[in-house]
Write a structure and sequence with these properties.
Blueprint (H helix, E strand, L loop, with lengths): L2 H6 L3 H9 L8 H8 L3 H13 L3 E14 L1 H9 L2 H8 L5 E2 H8 L3 H13 L3 E3 L4 E4 L5 H15 L2 E2 L5 H9 L1 E2 L8 E13 L2 H12 L11 H6 L26 H15 L3 E2 L5 E3 H4 L33 H10 L21 E3 L4 H7 L7 E10 L11 E10 L5 H15 L5 E5 L5 E11 L3 E11 L1 H4 L8 E7 H9 L12 H9 L1
Helix pairs in contact: 3-4, 5-9, 7-8, 13-19
Length: 512
């Protein structure tokens, strides 16, 4: 491309950078924002275009750890932290744990966390009547946390300017994922430094000679017509030699087509499909699966809670009573249960379903015996997004009911799925643990690039699950990551490519 054609291809964002800065000057998104009023996105776009034309180049990168205050943190700046509020409440005398939670408007687990931290520091204790009493009023940790919250409310905190004590407190109160449930969010910020190349000088000379300023208009808008500014404005020239857009016929997304193919295969094997809503109660998402209400996976850091409404009106009977009994003392399942008081308010809490097994549990009271059922289910969990994980994902979930099914039957089904559905050539089984199955098995497949990874979990439902829901025969269950199976089948190496915004990649994948 000759220099004249190159200059004509420049966007106003690029032109202003070339006219404002000379070669060799360190440039960052912050510098462009300060000098030219560019937003971060505009600055990054200008750098990307200029580098693509050889008019700029990257010269270095620096990273730093930054702590940002979350919405919860801002609430606590104004209204106090749970620990601070508990200490204030105790100024009026000892308070029972349940009464303190109600008084401060906290959930029981948050109240327990606040008490536990203060008790660890020797600030509070339990008296002989099981009431919380105040032992001391001063806490250096709380004082430092208050200062950090107030500073973060005004500006993000750079780790390089913090003391060791401040870093320790921030580390205990900050998260990278699930940050909405913590007062600070920790993130790594990278600053990329660029400079204009010597070739930019020739482009600037042509720009100046042609009288280009970067303020030229790119389109005739209703606002320009209304104000009349189009009469005096200068428009960018149109490139009439630009090639026309190619015509691309419509077709299914390759991942959507893969999912439909999975459904067709399972239906051809005699399975019936089930489905259900994205929003579920804690009852069906965990309680019905004999997952104790104090299990770590039930925490807000691992599931998405619904803000409004927060709870379902009721849970279906007799399943509520039977599941509650199974948790408390085993009910009529032959188990001793988990030995705790089942919380009938918590069980109504609304969440985005975190596992496809919720639909298997809901299917049990209505299932035919013998019977085979499956679903392709979208699930949601807090997770660090990488090549094999996503914050939302699809599972193929299924159950097989029958008096003669056993572990051998389950292993055969898993191998069939791995080979026929995922296209794997190497399969292995690993012992696993799930609160709702015994025995439990994880199936792993080998990817040519990523190596061995878990395709999903499976097992035989425990009687605490099946008998509580009216089923008295063995039930095989599995939940397999259909996103991961698609990686194998479509020849991909990153789960994010299934949802790429790069349409060209999607078309190429479809043709292959």
């Amino acid at each position: 491309m000759d220099q004249d054609t190159l200059v004509k291809s420049l966007h106003p964002l690029e032109v202003k950078v070339l006219l404002t800065f000379g070669p060799g000057v360190p440039l960052t998104a912050g510098v462009l924002g300060e000098k030219l009023g560019y937003k971060v996105g505009q600055a990054n776009q200008a750098f990307s275009w200029l580098c693509g034309k050889g008019l700029a180049r990257e010269t270095g990168r620096t990273s730093k750890t930054v702590y940002e205050i979350t919405e919860l943190g801002r609430e606590q700046v104004a209204g106090g932290t749970p620990e601070e509020n508990l200490l204030k409440a105790l100024d009026n005398g000892p308070v029972a744990m349940a009464d303190a939670a109600q008084l401060l408007g906290l959930e029981q687990k948050d109240m327990g966390s606040a008490y536990g931290q203060l008790a660890k520091e020797g600030l509070v204790a339990m008296d002989e009547t099981k009431r919380i009493v105040k032992k001391a009023a001063q806490s250096p940790r709380l004082k430092t946390l208050r200062v950090l919250l107030q500073k973060a409310a005004e500006a993000d905190l750079d780790e390089s300017f913090l003391t060791d004590d401040e870093k320790a407190i921030l580390s205990a109160n900050a998260k990278k994922r699930g940050a909405a449930a913590s007062v600070f969010k920790v993130s790594e910020r990278e600053t990329v430094v660029y400079e204009l190349t010597p070739e930019a000088g020739s482009a600037v000379a042509i720009i100046r000679a042609q009288g280009v300023t970067g303020d030229e208009l790119g389109a005739l808008t209703p606002a320009l017509l209304t104000s009349g500014a189009w009469k005096t404005g200068v428009f960018r020239p149109y490139n009439v030699a630009a090639p026309p857009s190619r015509l691309v016929i419509g077709r299914r997304n390759p991942y959507q087509e893969y999912i439909l193919g999975v459904k067709d295969k399972l239906v051809s094997l005699g399975f019936e499909e089930f489905d259900g809503p994205l929003v579920e109660t804690e009852f069906w998402n965990g309680d019905a699966l004999f997952m104790p209400q104090f299990h770590s996976a039930r925490d807000i850091h691992d599931v998405y809670y619904v803000k409004n409404p927060t709870h379902a009106k009721e849970i279906e009977q007799p399943w509520l009573d039977r599941i509650a009994a199974a948790h408390t003392n085993g009910g009529d399942t032959g188990s001793r249960g988990w030995g705790y008081n089942f919380d009938r308010d918590f069980t109504r809490r609304l969440i985005l379903r975190s596992q496809g097994t919720v639909l298997s549990a809901k299917q049990l009271p209505h299932a035919k015996i013998p019977g085979k059922y499956f679903g392709v289910v979208r699930c949601f969990r807090y997770d660090q997004v990488d090549a094999t994980h996503g914050a939302d994902f699809y599972q193929t979930e299924g159950i097989v009911l029958g008096s003669d099914v056993n572990l051998r039957t389950l292993l055969g089904l898993l191998k069939m799925f791995a080979i026929e559905v995922a296209g794997a050539t190497e399969v292995k089984y690993v012992p696993g643990y799930f609160p709702f199955t015994e025995p439990s098995v994880e199936v792993h497949i080998k990817h040519p690039v990523l190596g061995w990874f878990e395709m999903g979990g499976s097992g035989i439902f425990r009687p605490e699950v099946t008998k509580s829901l009216g089923v008295d025969v063995p039930v095989l269950a599995w939940g397999l990551g259909i996103d991961r199976m698609a990686l194998m089948s479509l020849g991909l190496s990153d789960i994010r490519e299934l949802f790429t915004a790069n349409i060209e990649n999607v078309r190429l994948r479809r043709r292959s």
